[in-house]
């Protein structure tokens, strides 16, 4: 397993479906109090998490399970291709051969770029921001407001608030709620809704944001990343044992990833259209 081992100390909300998958995959992580920003409660859906703490803890679990994790920071990871098949990756002068490569490089999309994989871009650029907030408010539940120019999501955690916003414009004013103000770092990213036409092919599977990206209002990014990783890993193990099944495994995985993206997109698109929030490509 190769990676940069980097992620932001930004807040995210792990949906109930993602929590169920995490509980099956890495139960010890669920039990780590330093990962979570709130207590497990049936009355509030999902759980707030500090993203780099979750990722660090998952790496500890992966290593304890016997996976060799190597930090590769200095050079870009490039796929090695022979006769149209991905047969490993190179990183600078290091070469790592593998019968199957699983790409989970997020929005960087290493394989998409290197193999020029076909994709559809479904939205114009959107500006996403997130961070922490402090203050007092009569609002004790999750707050969600959507309008023509974007949306704001604000949620109390045990000690403070976490918030995420989308704007159709860059650098707009962040207006939280009365009595609540932004504290600390604000993380900003420009993204577009996009998905690969085929998220698997000869010698590779593409997971998570690298396979399909919708904005955080879907509430589903982590669930899709975890679930696609489980599916790709399971199919890769199957193909290693039975190489003759590689085409069917790639087709099954690609279809699942596409249908998952399209179903979530349809729901989100309806919410945006009702709010006259226009992020579609002109
Ligand atoms: C503002 C914002 C708020 C969000 N809030 C939520 C939320 O509340 N709930 C939710 O479920 N989802 C949320 N998401 C979405 C969620 O973060 C993503 O869907 C999820 O992180 C996808 O996981 P991933 O593993 O596919 O990609 P990532 O988490 O992006 O991981 C990719 C990893 O690959 C590494 N990498 C990239 N390129 C290379 C390379 N060349 N070589 C080696 N390593 C590389 C990166 O360093 C990174 O560690 C949010 C996203 C944003 C932008």
From TrEMBL:
It comes from the Bacteria. This is Dehydrogenase (Flavoprotein). It comes from Paraburkholderia aspalathi.
């Amino acid at each position: 397993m190769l990676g940069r081992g980097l992620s932001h100390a930004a807040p995210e909300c792990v949906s109930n479906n993602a929590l169920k998958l995490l509980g099956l995959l890495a139960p010890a992580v669920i039990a780590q109090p330093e990962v979570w920003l709130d207590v497990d409660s049936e009355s509030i859906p999902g759980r707030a998490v500090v993203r780099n703490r979750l990722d660090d803890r998952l790496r500890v679990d992966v290593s304890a399970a016997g996976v060799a994790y190597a930090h590769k920071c200095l050079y870009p990871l490039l796929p090695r291709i022979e006769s149209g098949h991905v047969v490993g990756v190179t990183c600078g002068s290091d070469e790592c051969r593998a019968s199957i490569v699983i790409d989970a490089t997020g929005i960087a999309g290493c394989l998409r770029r290197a193999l020029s994989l076909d994709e559809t871009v479904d939205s114009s650029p959107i500006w996403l921001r997130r961070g922490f907030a402090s203050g007092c408010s009569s609002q004790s539940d999750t707050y969600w407001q959507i309008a023509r120019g974007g949306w704001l999501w604000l949620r109390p955690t045990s000690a403070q608030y976490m918030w995420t916003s989308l704007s159709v414009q860059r650098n707009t004013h962040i207006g939280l709620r009365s009595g609540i103000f932004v504290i600390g770092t604000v993380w900003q990213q420009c993204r577009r809704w996009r998905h690969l036409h085929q998220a698997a092919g000869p010698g590779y599977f593409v997971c998570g944001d690298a396979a399909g990206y919708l904005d955080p209002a879907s509430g589903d990014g982590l669930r899709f990343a975890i679930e696609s990783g489980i599916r790709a890993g399971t199919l890769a193990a199957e193909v290693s044992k039975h190489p003759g099944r590689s085409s069917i495994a790639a087709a099954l995985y690609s279809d699942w990833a596409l249908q998952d993206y399209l179903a979530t997109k349809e729901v989100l698109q309806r919410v945006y259209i009702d709010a006259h929030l226009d992020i579609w490509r002109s």
